[in-house]
Amino acid sequence: MKMADCTTLLRYLLKDRTELMEALNDCYENNTVFISNKVLVEAVNTLETVHEFSKNQIVDALEKLIEHENVHVYDKKLIHQSLEHYRNGNEEFFDALLEECCAKEHFGFCKAEK
Predict the structure, then answer these.
(1) Domains of the chain
(2) CB under 8 Å to 92, separation ≥6 — which residues?
């Protein structure tokens, strides 16, 4: 199994470095690849802020990627739910992921509000 980092994930999704595509395609399509939650959060933030992707573009690209049999994430169902929460809500992806993790574990949030 190989561990994805944010840079290679972005290059693979963006397909903007033609000289790297053969190696990236081989890595993501011919190996078992694990993508951590941290890498997903970083990738979403970069796609949104640097590359000005819409939420729909980001979610569609990541949904397509994690559906590959050889691509693994911590919890596919949780990531799918978090991506849909992000797409349909006003939160950043990190917040959507955190809320979905808390819901899964039946945790509440500490709040300092009255």
Answers:
(1) 2-105 (3.40.50)
(2) 44, 45, 86
pLDDT in tens, 19-49: 999 999 999 889 999 999 999 999 999 999 9
H-only helix segments in 6-92: 6-14, 18-30, 37-49, 55-66, 76-88
Give the torsion sign (CA, 9, 6, 62, 11). Answer: negative
Q: What does the block give as tokens for 100?
A: 């979905």
pLDDT tens per residue across span 58-69: 999 999 999 999
Cβ-based burial of 9 (10 A; exposed 0-12, middle 13-18, buried ≥19): buried
- d(CA 42, CA 24) in angstroms, rounded, equals 18
Residue carrying structure tokens 């561990």: 3
